[in-house]
Amino acid sequence: MLTRTASSEWSRLIASLDVNTHGVTVVVGAQAVRLADSLQGSGVHPIAGASDEVVVCAAEEGYDLESATPASTGLPDDSADLVVLAHAWSGRTDVEPALVEAVRIARPGAAVVVCELDVGRILRSRPAQYPSVLLYTAEPAAAALVMDQHPDPGLLELTAVRVGIRAGEVTRFERTVRQAPVDEYLADVAVRGWRGADVVDAAEADAVLARLEPIVSRLARDGVYTETEPWVVVRGWV
Predict the structure, then answer these.
(1) CB 236 within 8 A of CB 112
(2) Which of 21, 79, 108, 231 sits 20 to 30 Å CA-CA off 224?
(3) pTM to 2 decimals?
(4) 237 burial type by CB count under 10 A (0-12 exposed, 13-18 middle, 19+ buried)
(5) Longest C-alpha distance within the chain, in Å?
(6) Which residues pair with 111 in a beta bridge?
(7) What residues form DSSP beta bridges with 227?
């Protein structure tokens, strides 16, 4: 259920952005293969070549991406009709090299779509909206780690302009993280946690879970709770 929901969300997002999905699409990011699969509903071609962080979707195969990275894809100049980057960096200093590479491989007039988790919005929210704020308010070290890993929307916009991406337009996107019966949801959080949970010890994690249970039990619909997280999307043109 989660996979189907998340896939349709990404497809609807790309379809809503008025970008060319019928040519060569390059998907870049930490989960590039999964994201490329989920974009099929928006008209993007099947995967024609892939590495861990770079995927090419095209009508013809033959792309060698074995050593491709977000900052060095190895693709020819002016070869992509659409470049989608989703958390394609490990921190702030990695953003510009990835966007420079996106501009290099994009054909004149091609769209570049930059997607990133909006950590600031989570930190300003209430637990009923984004439950992970329970962890980040209780454990500042976890919040600091996640903020370092996920650059803020302002940095993305400024960097996009600096590297030559024109007419940037910012939209928001709610991504489904988990969707399950309450007991299964709580068990999944206990095992996988949220981003940054690896710096929290067991006792602290248990305390957060104790606060989480009554919240999701109250908000669940027909016994099923859906957790989403906010993403910012910057769309521009080369």
Answers:
(1) yes
(2) 231
(3) 0.91
(4) middle
(5) 54
(6) 82, 237
(7) 178
Tokens 């946690």: give the residue: 193
Res. 1: pLDDT tops 50: no
What is the phi-psi region of residue 194: left when phi exceeds 0, alpha when psi lies from -120 to 50, beta otherwise? beta
Instruction: Please tell me the predicted confidence (pLDDT) of residue 5.
Output: 57
Q: How far apart are alpha carbons 215 and 211 in whole angstroms?
A: 7
The structural domains of the chain, ordered by start, are: 2-237 (3.40.50.150)
What are the residues facing 82 on neighbouring strands? Answer: 25, 111
Q: What is the C-alpha separation between 129 and 227, in angstroms, rounded?
A: 8
Residue 86 confidence (pLDDT) above 90: yes
- pLDDT (0 to 100) of residue 7: 61
Q: Residue 181: what residue type?
A: P
Tokens of 127: 């637990």
How many other CB atoms sit within 10 Å of the CB of residue 15?
Answer: 15
Tokens read off for 143: 């919040």
Residue 207, both tokens: 């305390």
Token pair, residue 104, equals 């290099």
